[in-house]
Amino acid sequence: MTDVMALARERTQLFRDVIDGNIPKRVPIFVSFSIEFAIQYAGKNLMEAQWDTGQLEEIFDQICRDFYSDLLPVNAFRFPSFYRLLGARNFVMSSNGFLQHPEVEGLLQEEYDDFIASPYNCIIEKILPRIYTELDTDASTKALALAKAFKAFHDEMGTAIMIYGRLNQKYGYGDVNFFAGFTEAPFDFISDQLRGFKGISTDIRRVPDKVEAAVEAATPLMIKAGMQPFPSKYNATFIPLHMAPFMRTKDFERFYWPTFKKLVEALAEAGHPSNLFVEHDWMRYLDYLYELPENTIMRFEYGDPKLVKEKLGKKHIIAGFYPVSLLKTGTKQQCIDKAKELLDILAPGGRYYFDFDKVPITLDSVNVENARAVLEYVAANANY
Amino acid sequence: MLDMQVLTQAVGDLDEPKVLGMLKEFVAANPGSEEAAAVVNACQQGMAIVGDLFDAKEYFVGDLIFAGELLNAAIDILKPVIGGESTAKVGKIVLGTVEGDLHDIGKNIFKSMSEAAGFEVIDLGIDVPAGTFVEKVKEIKPEIVGMSGVLTLALDSMKKTVDALKEAGLRDGVKVIIGGNPVTEEACRAIGADAFTTNAAEGVKICQGWVK
Asked: Where is the B12-binding N-terminal domain (chain B) (predicted)?
């Protein structure tokens, strides 16, 4: 067995131990960097490299080479080509080459009843043409536009997956996949794609019963979307959480939580653990998160790591909390001290892997030296 | 006659049916513009309650957004009795999400809250180049320039915008406030802004302080 294969095995074992509830040899590390960060780090042109995805291997390779992680530290899956072919309004590149999600209204408030009666038909007939302007046309032109976009999607994803495979082999990354599926909490789906932040915030007051019914109606689709090709306790479906911290607790209890819980439970029953990005501050909701199926992966952005460890640490798998902002503003020693502090709180008893609180999206959002130093510190010192 | 305190409280409670019901009744009685101004003032005070409840973590961002919508609906009802330019503006703000950033939720919250506080807001939209800010400041001559952004890259664009205002000789004539997730005191200093905030209600208070 080559050294790289042995390394991959060892790294796989670190994560399997975390998932199996065993104490691993060392705290595993899984950080990721955005495609934009990687392109800037490699000194390439942001727009060119996102369109000409063949360039990405060399670009991602530099991240793998320079930043320690036990799993592949890059994972791009939104490429401008297919969004452009669809005339997407929900993912748009800004003037300086950053693909972003502007507010969209895929569903009008007066159309809730259509969505509730048949979410799938409503998505096909009303919502897609509104979000994707190239689909707002006659049937045959629409079919062609969709075919082109899917061709581009499969080409881009094919290229990306081949690159990821080669980098996994070259660098001996562990063989667990926390992005093996992708879905959204039903309320987030309704908010992000159908009604917008503004729309949903008014709807829960003006038409609360309809919102509740729509979220229910979306749930089977969200469950289906989150199913992975094969069940495995070592792979997870990624669910980035969005709206809950921006709602009152009583609104969360009514509109957000019941169907989100149903989603995570249904995925777990089918053998697919969930990997939650717990965006913003969820400290109000820790007792709810506790109720989710055992071994749900939760990467936190803000909040109190002590409280999270105490309330969730024996049942779930915790990550995150390391402030990317400190990597920009702190000295190297301060950055390492912060890592120590978090390890002391979160590592005892296992069920923890090291990650930043968010993905650094631009090169200048961190001091690269600090980022490297922290990752190397954890890799060398976080032994059990 | 409408009970101003009840109205203020209803706005603070974000009790839309009650607020709109009271205002419709008020407008139906054909009030004079002085009374109408008092009602607008009562609504504005209700928005101040909303800001306080946000600080107290009883309201969250979604509630602020709804508060803006509620206020728009209220003003729509009151328009016929307020009269065209009868309400004096306390100042002008040229506002935009800076170049490279497409996020506008925070900007829009700040916009509706500052309009509620009596400012005239000229909203330049999203992904606004420095040059557009400069042109508008020349044209409008506002007291305040507000720049918003969510991504860390927005900080660079904010700096570029301030530099462009300096180059055009406009910087000294305006106060500059920056808002959004990535802004910090350090960033504020580096950018050369006069104030920063991650809290729209606080931002409005800062602006009020400037035009007193």
From this structure: 1-90
- Give residue-wise pLDDT tens across range B45-102: 898 899 889 989 999 999 999 998 998 899 889 888 876 555 678 999 999 999 999 8
CA distances from A93 to A89, A99, A154, A169, A359 (A): 10, 4, 20, 32, 18
Report the alpha-carbon angle A43-A48-A54, nearest 5: 90
Tell whether A200 lies on the interface with B, counting CB pairs under 8 A: yes
Cα A23 to Cα A384: distance, rounded to the nearest angstrom:
7
Sheet holding A177-182, edge to edge: A177-182, A235-240, A274-281, A297-302, A317-320
Q: pLDDT by residue (tens digit) across A160-191?
A: 999 999 999 999 999 999 999 999 999 999 99
From the list B99, B199, B3, B152, the residue with the least C-alpha distance to A358 is B152
* Alpha carbon A360 to chain centroid, angstroms: 13
Residues in A closer than 8 angstroms to B69, CB to CB, are 198, 201-202
Which CATH architecture group holds A126-131+176-319? Alpha-Beta Barrel (3.20)
Q: Return d(Cα A304, Cα A282) in angstroms, integer.
A: 10
Minimal-distance CA residue of chain A relative to B73: A202
B106 alpha carbon, distance to own chain's centre: 10
Are both B100 and B198 inside the same structural domain?
A: yes
Instruction: Identify the H or E element spanning A277.
Output: strand A274-281
Which of A95, A103, A329 lies at the smallest CB-CB distance from B104? A103
pLDDT digits (tens, 9 = 90+) for B124-135: 999 999 999 999
CB B149 within 8 A of CB B75: no
Torsion of CA A200, A205, A207, A213, to 10 degrees: 70
Chain A residues whose beta carbon lies within 8 Å of the beta carbon of residue B103: 100, 102
For residue A175, which phi and psi values (nearest 5 degrees)?
-105, 65
Structure tokens at B111: 């916009």
Mutate to test the interface with B, among A91, A95, A104, A328 (most CBs of B within 10 A): A95
B66 and B99 co-located in one domain: no
Question: What ipTM was assigned to the predicted interfaces of this complex?
Answer: 0.89
* Among the partner residues B105, B127, B152, nearest to A95 by beta-carbon distance: B127
Is residue B211 within 8 Å of B177, Cβ to Cβ? no
Question: Which string of DSSP letters, residue by residue, matches B122-149?
Answer: EE--SSB-HHHHHHHHHHH--SEEEEE-
- What gap in Å lies between CA A105 and CA A203, rounded to an integer? 12
Domain boundary at B82, B114, B138, which? B82
pTM: 0.92
What pLDDT, in 10s, does the model give residues B175-196?
A: 999 999 889 898 999 999 999 9
Tell me, what CATH number does B197's domain have?
3.40.50.280
The separation between CA A32 and the C-alpha centre of its own chain, rounded to angstroms, equals 10
Q: One-letter amino acid identity for B74?
A: A
- Cβ <8 Å between B151 and A100: yes
Expressed as residue numbers, the domain containing B170 is 91-211
d(CA B31, CA B10): 20
**Cβ proximity of B174 and B137 under 8 Å:** yes
**B100, A95: Cβ pair inside 8 Å?**
yes
